[in-house]
User: Fold these one by one.
Assistant:
Number 1:
Amino acid sequence: MSSVIKQSDPSPIIACTISRDVQNFDLLIEDMEAAMGEAWGDLGFAEALAFFNQPEAESLEFVAVAIDEADEDDLVMLGEIIGLANKKGVKVILIAEDVTPAALHQLLRQGADEFVPYPLPEGELQAAIERLQTAPAPVHLAPALTHAALATPTAGDGVIFAVQGLAGGTGATTLAVNLAWELANIEKANPPRVCLLDFSLQFGSVSTYLDLPRRDVVFEMWSDTEALDDDIFRQALVAFEEKLWVLTAPSDVLPLDMISSEDVNKVLALARKHFDYVVIDMPGSLVQWTEAVLHSAQVYFTTLELDMRSAQNALRIKRALQSEDLPVDKLRYCLNRSPKFTDLNGKSRVKRMAESLEIRIEILLPDGGRAVCQSSDHGLPLASSTAKNPLRREIAKLASSLHALGKSDAEAA
Ligand SMILES: Nc1ncnc2c1ncn2[C@@H]1O[C@H](COP(=O)(O)OP(=O)(O)OP(=O)(O)O)[C@@H](O)[C@H]1O
Ligand SMILES: [Mg+2]
């Protein structure tokens, strides 16, 4: 353990324990030493508050706040420490012994990222540190989404989430497929009904990613929407593992302008009638019926990456929607292959990109490595093939927060 006060210390302090007296948590000392070597220090509560404002704190990546029942009287101060750490971009692992669930809950809500009980189970601290390092910052949904945005998911009133890539290959289909699958599995007892619509009519790859057949009736459905009714719509859908209903792209290439906003609206009305959640994989380009989807969708996710192509297209789409007076506030920017939590340079590039585009990048999707591509090649969602993949975890979190918002809105209504 290093003293954080020592100025001459050559190795920067990456982590700190914060506790009334670290000697009460000797297993924590052992585990910190094993995980961090010399690159950590320890602080008391009052010292911690002062320390965050010092230059030495800039190298901090996380703090482990260790508390026991005697600290429950100091919840306000603990909340301040966690809040300050959050503000400085320092992650917080909460380590607690004999603390009431109410106190734990409060501290987690105040922004602690991970919780590990004390005495520390074997390997748990290390695992929590690894999770912090692979997971990007948590998803923060814009206020618009927390309130009126989500319609109550009842029959006829399904919630629509659209996904469009701002540049090719930025992960729109991966997000759409996995978000739909996570939603379909979000509650065991009473799972919502979910359908996934592949509106990438020409080169839609949802059927490939889930290894589903493309039905001829899909082409017929789009070519004659006059005749479209519940029955035809149902016939056009294929089930993935009896849980997710999918409208694949047609087997033949369809011109994107062959369908109109009315056609799209008709399909969407049927989808909302039969499903609680409707996830749409949109084509990469803006088409005349994009507007129809934008109007119907509660949230319109756009995927981008940290490169010039995405940046320029983000600017274009924003301007295009603004010039047509379209609801640009429904867009949620998802940065795919986002830099890791430890990549400070990458993080500042994200910040600069958001600032220069005047957008909020609210959802950070980590790189999931080759497992992601392999999963789609095998026709499986990430949850079935690589459940612990960091990308899967982040999409699962997104699905939970969307579902929780939908439920709280339903209860408020
Ligand atoms: N976060 C990620 N980590 C690792 N691989 C990823 C990630 N996101 C996407 N991929 C891989 O990148 C490739 C492109 O992803 P995907 O097909 O989802 O993008 P898209 O935006 O739908 O592309 P298109 O423009 O072709 O429609 C796929 O092979 C996918 O497995
Ligand atoms: Mg795609």
Number 2:
Amino acid sequence: MSILTKPDLQTVIRERHSVRHYDPSVKIPRQEMEEILSEAILAPSSSNLQPWRFVVIDDAELLKKLHPIANNQEHVLQASAVIAVLGDMKWYEKGRQIYTMSEEAGYMTEEIKQYFINSAENIYANMDQSVKESIIDVDAGLISMQLMLSARARGYDTVPMGGYNKVKFVEEFKIPEHYRSVMLIAIGKAASPGRPTVRLPLEDVAFWNEI
Ligand SMILES: Cc1cc2nc3c(=O)[nH]c(=O)nc-3n(C[C@H](O)[C@H](O)[C@H](O)COP(=O)(O)O)c2cc1C
């Protein structure tokens, strides 16, 4: 991929691979990290309630602390940062703020706003814990993918990580109880490319009209 021209989306998608070796001398500037996160948060979410929260861990000492919690995965120490993707289990409490912003922007009427606020405060708030967790996990997955593609489009690489001790992570990093730790994403400048991976043939995974 040329650094002079912006890659198109197909190229970004095809060239993204999980990278496990990073150049430790490259620190992604905070402003660029914010741009990546700003693009990521354009991802869709259930009722646009945006349950995701991020902790960007870019302090070397904290990455050292994270290393054993993340099963000693080497890339945790080499990456520019590790982004902890969290879900706020009380995310629906921001419904009023979100829908008021929508109304003020002229994107919904007062009546529709009230309908959505009611849904957030009465339906979402009273869902079973397992349903809440499922919504959080789906939305956090979508945002994580968007984040990884945004990073790749800017010449950075990532690896999503589920291989870490979530209990230890929330304990050691003092994550408040109402956050659910969904995944970690290491991000940085690749020192060597990700290894190629295969995909099942499309006909094994995609079906038309019935399965
Ligand atoms: C939810 C999830 C958890 C993962 N956990 C890890 C992990 O802990 N360590 C790791 O090196 N890769 C991890 N991976 C990366 C996968 O191994 C990788 O995405 C898969 O092999 C396909 O390769 P690709 O990403 O290069 O296309 C994880 C991927 C996902 C989606």
Number 3:
Amino acid sequence: MQDTEHNHEIFEEKLKLCREVLGQDSVSALMTTTCYSLGRFKEIVDEYVRLGFNSIFLRSLNPYGFAKRDKQKIAYPLADFIENYKEALDYIIDINLKGTVFVEGYAELLLSRVLTPFATGFVDLQSPAGVGISGVIYDYNGNVYVSDEARMMATANNHYFKMGNVNENTYQEMFNGEFLHHVISNACTECLPICAECAYQPFCGADPVRNFSEQGDMVGHRPTNESCKKNKAVLQHLLELIKKNDPKINNVFWSWITKQSIQ
Ligand code: SF4
């Protein structure tokens, strides 16, 4: 416990330093839910507010890197995350209504998709997926991957999503090659099984790298896909809140989308 407190003190010192060098609003803290976070989302949100952050992105565990390796110790049923997420979202809406501007990032992205015609630039929630076409990762050794998650898979010796290497391949080979065409042709929700007929399809996105990591192929199997279950549950919850047509909640949502204070 003492170590944890000490680590947090060090974190706060380094956060202060980063803000001094980069600017107050240039530092964000990426939250990842482990089983130890469940039941404590309100405390986590309070801590973000106390530290002067104006947003949080409540993320469930992704099947890559350390999270995949340590799954036995830190994983939990997705339903537990969804329950905690809904509670935390209510709490965050309340914080905003009491006068503190504080955004939940995942809801903000989905609300932009549902309530506006504009793209968000969030590559996991678009069709075709943004892998390799909206963003790529150049690793220190010249390897080029379709996404950071693909790079993380490579650290576990799975190089399936490597597009090439800057020392060995031309731009044309990597960005107009057969491999990237193959990935993108498997990354459109309009033609993926189940997604093609799903009511949430216009707001959702394909994630071939995650499907591959979680289910062994780029198309994936929707009925057992954790990412699909999460998107469905969160979208359904947001649509229920929109359907209430509560002016207070609507104001909070629009303040997040337009990045302006509550009217
Ligand atoms: S919610 Fe699931 S089935 Fe529907 S579009 Fe998203 S991933 Fe596909």
Number 4:
Amino acid sequence: MIKAQDVNKTFGQLQVLKGVSLDIQLGEVVVIIGPSGSGKSTLLRCINHLESIDIGNIFFDGQSVAFQEIPGGNRIPVKRKDIYNLRRQIGMVFQRFNLFPHMTALSNVMEGPLTVLGVTKGEARRLAESLLAKVGLANKANSYPSQLSGGQQQRVAIARALAMNPKVMLFDEPTSALDPELVGEVLNVIKDLASEGMTMLVVTHEMGFAREVADRVVFMDEGMIIETGTPEQIFSSPKHPRTREFLSNVIRNYDNHSFPQVV
Ligand SMILES: Nc1ncnc2c1ncn2[C@@H]1O[C@H](COP(=O)(O)OP(=O)(O)O)[C@@H](O)[C@H]1O
Ligand SMILES: [Mg+2]
């Protein structure tokens, strides 16, 4: 579904991604963990083409996201039209919910299908109602974002992303801005999506969630993938010293009952 090959990305002098390669299969849930500043968000943004890349390539469902090969061995950036086409197939949920503040939950979810997919108002409404029900917010359809808790807003944001019928969902620390007691309701929605077979790439610091839901865990540090494995491997017997150090810091800094025991 997603294939990143030797992705390199610099911002000015700073090399943020240093040859990242990652394959995500259809239906797979991959969780990325790693310290702040290691390039996790940048990698997600490159997959969605919110950032361009310098070297390497990224394929989505067989199609190049970043560069197109042209005869003569050269390559050119993909066309704008193809980027829009790509983005509509990838749902993205950020740390901050980014809902339209002047629109109800229902209208927020209807907006994409109405303006981008061109469905009728009735269809958009039915779709939005069913998606709000799916994320447990059927009774909040007419609430404005300011009337919702952070966890509820984030669930609306997930429903809004799902309304575009994406092939893949990318989550960038979806619970990091939430009060601790609201984290679980959002993780549960993501967990449900995973069990329905949605292909997902999730950046999170919620190690208990990673352990439970991930098919594979990827540890990133300083712009590189340091280690990849099953949750069992990464959390119970991390191979790389940096992975071990990161996990023990995470456990020490957050006294969270959901974190697994790490040796
Ligand atoms: N648009 C940008 N311009 C300049 N530097 C950036 C930009 N976006 C991210 N960075 C830098 O790239 C590095 C990786 O950032 P990021 O991908 O956000 O890491 P993470 O999500 O793992 O915390 C950081 O040092 C950050 O300051
Ligand atoms: Mg980030």
